[in-house]
Structures are given as structure tokens and as C-alpha cells.
Amino acid sequence: MLRAAAVAALVVLAFFLPRLLGGTSVVYSTLTTIAIFAVMCYGVDVVLSYLGEVSLGHTLFWAIGGYTAANLSVKYGLNGWSTAFATIVLSIAAAAFLGAVTLRTREFVFSLVTYAAAVVAYEIAFNWEAIGGSDGIVGISALKLPFGVATYTGATQEELWPIAFALLLATLAFIERFRRSKLGTTALMVQMNPPLAASLGVDPRKVRLAVFVISAPITGLAGWLYAYQRAYVGPDMFETYFLVMMLTAVVLVGRRVLIGPLIGTAILIVQQNLLSLGGDWNKIILGSVLALVLIFWPAGLIGLFRRFVKSNA
Amino acid sequence: MSKSIKLAIALLLGLSAPAMAQDIKVGTIFPLSGGAGPDGQSVTNAVKLAIQEINDKGGLLGRKIALVSKDDESTPAVGVSRANEMIAEKVDVVIEGWNSPVTLAMQPILARAGILDITAVSKSDLILAGETNPLAIRINSSNGFDAGVIAKYVAETLKAKKVAFLTQNDVYGNGFQAAVEAEFKKLNFAGEVTTTEKFAFKDTDFRVQLTNLKTANPDAIIVTNSSNSSGLPAMVEQYRQADLKSAFVGAVGIMLPTVFKVAGVANDGIVSADIYFWDLPPFNAIPESNSFVTAFKKAYGVEPDKSAALGAAALQVWARAVEATKSLDRKTVAEAIRGKTIKGTLFGDAQFLPNGQLQPRYVVFKVVDGKTAKLEALK
Asked: Phi/psi at B100 (nearest 5 deg)?
């Protein structure tokens, strides 16, 4: 009961965070971006934390969300619910296909195949004029979410913040449930103790496919909202900028920590926007952080913190 | 607190704070790091010089201009963050754009915030489509105009009967070819397009395509190739080795310094066109261009290229319009530029079309000495 109240208080506080930080348009846009990017990272987090696999192909689902929102809203004038629904369907379909193809692959090969899929998709998006081509799609109108008689319109960063916040909250609730679900615990068992899983009659391939498919619409919906925030979608959604962001944000704080990717994303965006050292240096830092964390503290900042506490105790 | 200290503080505040607040802020967003970094720095430097020139003459509307420069890292997502920072800094105008996707991503952000946005270099036609920014302004030439000048040269000056295309197989290459073919139709071109050979952006071996073209033996081959550091120099070398007799007509803007540096004498005889050369007419007779070239050489030790000129021209156009309207308002200034002629820029009298596109003045040229990049303007 007390815990629920504390969580509720924290949620309310987080919702008003932009206003507490001054309420300027930059604060709103930065926090909205952090929320969207964090949701994007949670898709990768599910695969990395519970399957122990590094997906280099999640930019594909991110782009599916962006391209679906852009194409359907610009060409057919569909509202936000329809484009979100289409995003979920398409990203699940793509993940089911990619998951089935990579069913027998592990570790390095899995990463390579998912990366190859993203590269192929990038080439298609870059060259296929009907969905935007190398110039992308402009003129995405404001996000419209009709609720019965009234319609919520997200045109400005201030108006998009509640939507991004709700999406982030829904994602956190989903991940929290997933961690305790049968699928979540089985996935962890398949990763940590394959013989035990086998002796219990678990089909690891089924579990892997299910987890991979579940992860896709999370990143996809982040891409969906990003399209409305930016009002422009192009093949840059496949850029390594997003891929490195996803991986670093997840491993930085530590795997299997519920708010880990959120904190990781916040740290990275704040560094880039407020403590920027210039383009080349930012990339060097981001790459080095990723490498250093993986080499020295595979358990992330949380692991480092725990080790520190232990050695002091 | 004694009276004199109070007075001193009041004086200090009175002198420093309002003077700072009165500065007019010009923002630039170009790639300053990564592969396009040197190009973006050159454009930014050019804007800085153009600002300095105005400040040296007493400023704009009696106020000094301050530059706020940011790096988009050639990444649309980063450009969007930088555009938001410009909004926070309350700049009066943003001059931006090396890569079209970055421009397209930043445009709606700046437009919604009511900040005037001038695109210096990015070429996509979508930038002027009006969907993301109804008050768009662009200095660099558009693909449609570029195609027009090349088509006209091939059809009317060269009077070619048989024409071939050697086309980069992507939106840029195919789009340019389609535009040239459309221009041919408009000109009632008597000749015909006999051959089209395609290649990928990353290709460096064109011998198969060149052999086919040699067999076809057209009067002119129209070439698009935007890989200026490897693909195009290799193509030029192989073109000479294959000993083709057809005229090599390069698309607008592809003959960059790297092509001359790598392929050297093999470039001799190539015909192409561009919209600014500091040492060729009409630009070497424009006083604003000459003084800019002198200042640029003095400050940075090199001659300004086209993109540097585009950056400086963007600032000059904006400043003249602000001067004329005595306003910094986005709509007022944009409307004084779109569809109007701005005098006294390094492009001479800069004439803008109603959609915000600067009407380019092309120089069709022939490479006389590829080694020193010496060009000759064709009439």
C-alpha cells in the first residue's frame, strides 16, 4: 500500500518535472525526447536483458514506427490511433519474420543477421520513392488522438509531453509485468540455465521468438511518436546514432534494472545537449563509454555501485 | 552602501547589460564534425566574415550582430536538438543546411517557433514545397534549374544529335536524368537519347559502362556522380583510358576541388556548370564578391568555394532585407525576400522566386588545365 502510494507520488512528480525545471520549450522538448528514446531503448532492453542477445536490428522497428506514422498520416490522413495500431501490426510481423529466420542463431551470428536486416531495410527505404526515398517524408501534421467526441492534438512539445509520458509509463508497466510473467521468467531460465529449462520441457526456440516479437512494438511505438515530434521521417532513422544510443543506454546503468534504460537515456541526452563537447568528441565519448562499460563493468553502473558498497561494508 | 558604489553599479549595469541584450543574434547550424565537418566550417566561417563586415560598418539597425554557431553532426536528430537550442537562445534568424535530411528535420521546428530560417546549401526540392515551412528561402540552386542549364548546353550549344546518360542509380542521379529529359522535351530537342548506363554511388570501376558507351559513341555523355573524392575521379581517369570521343558533360556542382586533386590532367576538356566562381565572370566584376574574397583569403588563407559564398550570401540577403524593412519579424523579412530582388550581395542583384528560391546565374565552363583546376567560362 505504502509502496503503491510512493510510486503514484513519483509518477505525479515526474509528470510535472518539465514545469519544475522551468517549463520552457527546450525543457519540454528535451524531456519528451528522453521519454521517446527511453521507450525505444526498452525494446532492445527486453532482448538484451532476458534473452542475453544483442539485437543490432531494432532500428528497423524504430523506422517501421516512423515510416508507418508518416506515410499513413500524410497520404491517407489517418489519426494517431490508426497509425499506432498499424505500427504494432507491422512491427510484430517484421519481428516474427526476423525472429523465425534467426531462430537457430546465437550471439555473434544473431547480432550480425539482425544488423544485416537493418542494412537491407535501410537500402530499401533509401531507394524506394513511394515511401519517401532518400529525401524522406515531410509535412507530417500534428498528432491527433480522438477520444469519443473530443480530440487530443499534440502539435507543440508541451502537448506531446503527456503522450510521451503516458507511453513511457505504459512501457514501464508492461516491462514490470513481463519480468514477473511466465514468459519473462522462462526466458531468463533459458538464458541462464539451459539444461534446467530443457529438463522442464521448455522449448527455447519458442521462448526466444516470443520475447523477440514482444520487443518489436515497444521500439516501434517510440518511432511512431518520434515521427510526430519531428514532423519529418527519413532514412536517417536507421542511423547508428540511434543504435548506439539504444545499446549504451541499456548497458550503462545495468541490465535487468527496471528504470535502467530510462536513466541511461537521460544521462546520454543531457550530456549531448547540455554538456556537449562537440560532434566528434561526443561520438568518441559515447563509443568509449559503451566499450569501457562492457569490458570493465558488464553489470553497469549498478554493478559498480554494488561492488563499491560491498568493499566498504 | 555608499552613493558612489550604487552609482558605479548602476553605470555598469547600464553599460553592459542592455548593450549585450541589444545584439541581434544570427544562428548557424552546419556539420562542424565528421566527414562534412570541413565544409560546414567553411560555410560558418563565411557567415562570420559577412557579419564582421556589417559590424565594422556600424552594425545592423544600429545594433551589433552576434553569431551563435552549432554543429548538426550531419544527423537529423542532432540538428533538431540544435534547432531547439536556437529557439531557447531567441536567435533572430537561422542560416542552416548542408544535408537535405537535416534541413527537412529542422525546418518544421524553427517554423513553429516563428524563427526565420534560410537554407544555404541543401538541395532537396522538398525544402521549398511549403509543407514544412511556408516561408522557406534557399540560396543554392535547385535540381530543376541545374538540369535546365545542362540540357540547354547539350541541345543548343553543342547541338548534339546522340546523347547518352551515365547516371548514379539513386534519387539524385535518376532525378537529375529525368529532369534533363523533361527539359529536352521543353526545348523541342531534335536529337535523341540513345544510351543510359547506371552505376551505384560507391562504385569505383566503370569500365563495363564506359565500354558500352564507347560502342554507342554519342556526341555527349551527361554524367551524375556525387562521390567526389573517389568515384568521380576514378570515372574521369577510366574515361580517358578508354579514349572516348564523346563530350563529358558533368552535372552542376560535381567538379569539386577533390576531383581536380585526384584526377588532375584527366579532367581536361570536361564541361560542367556551377553558380559561383570567385575568379570567373560575372563574379570577378562584382565589388561585394571581390571584397569578400579578399577578406576570406586574409582570414583563412584559401579562396572561398561555392558553399562559402552561399553562406555569406545568405547573411547578406537577410541583412539587406532587415535594413529595408527595419524589422526582424520572420514574416516581414521573409516577404521582403521571397519574390523580390535584393541588391548588393556577392551574387550581385539576388533575384528570388515567389517560392523563396534564389534565381541562380550559371557559369558553364570547360576545364582548361585539370592539374591547376583552371577553368574557362563558355559563352
From this structure: -60, -45
Which residues of chain B fall short of a pLDDT of 50? 1, 11-21
> Has the ipTM of the complex gone over 0.95?
no
Give B297-301 contacts, CB < 8 A, sequence gap 24+. Answer: B299/B45, B299/B49, B300/B42, B300/B45
Per-residue pLDDT at B223: 95
* Other Cβ atoms closer than 10 A to B181: 17
Is A273's CB within 8 Å of B85's CB? yes
Domains located in chain B, CATH noted:
3-141+286-351 (3.40.50.2300), 144-274 (3.40.50.2300)
The three-state secondary structure class of B130 is coil
Of B32, B109, B124, Cβ closest to residue A135: B124
List chain B residues with CB under 8 Å of A279: 31-34, 37, 71, 73, 78
Chain A residue with minimum CA distance to B75: A236
Burial of A96 (0-12, 13-18, 19+ CB in 10 A): middle
Contact B76/A272, CB-based, under 8 Å?
no
Q: Is B372 helix (H, G, I), strand (E, B) or coil?
A: coil
**Searching chain A, which residue's CA lies closest to the CA of residue B31?**
A279
Q: Which residues of B touch A (CB under 8 A)?
A: 31-34, 37, 71, 73, 75-78, 80-81, 84-85, 87-88, 100-101, 104-105, 107-109, 112-113, 124-126, 129, 131-132, 170-172
> For chain A, which residues score pLDDT lower than 70?
276, 278-279, 312-313
What residue in B sits closest to A230 (Cα-Cα)?
B105
Measured between CA atoms, how close is A50 to chain B, in angstroms? 29
Q: What phi-psi label fits residue B59: left (phi over 0), alpha (psi between -120 and 50 degrees) or beta?
A: left
pLDDT per residue as tens digits for the range B157-213:
999 999 999 998 877 788 889 999 999 999 999 899 999 999 987 889 999 999 999
Among B81, B85, B104, whose Cβ lies nearest the Cβ of A138? B104
Helix (H) or strand (E) holding A82: helix A80-101
- In chain A, the residue whose alpha carbon lies closest to the alpha carbon of B175 is A129
For residue B296 the three cell numbers come to 576570406
Amino acid symbol at B279: D
Sort out which chain B residues have CB atoms less than 8 A from A134's CB and list them. Answer: 101, 170-172
**Residue B8: predicted pLDDT:** 54
Which of B76, B87, B171 comes nearest A236 by C-beta?
B76
Indicate left, alpha or beta for A201 from its phi (over 0: left) and psi (-120 to 50: alpha). left
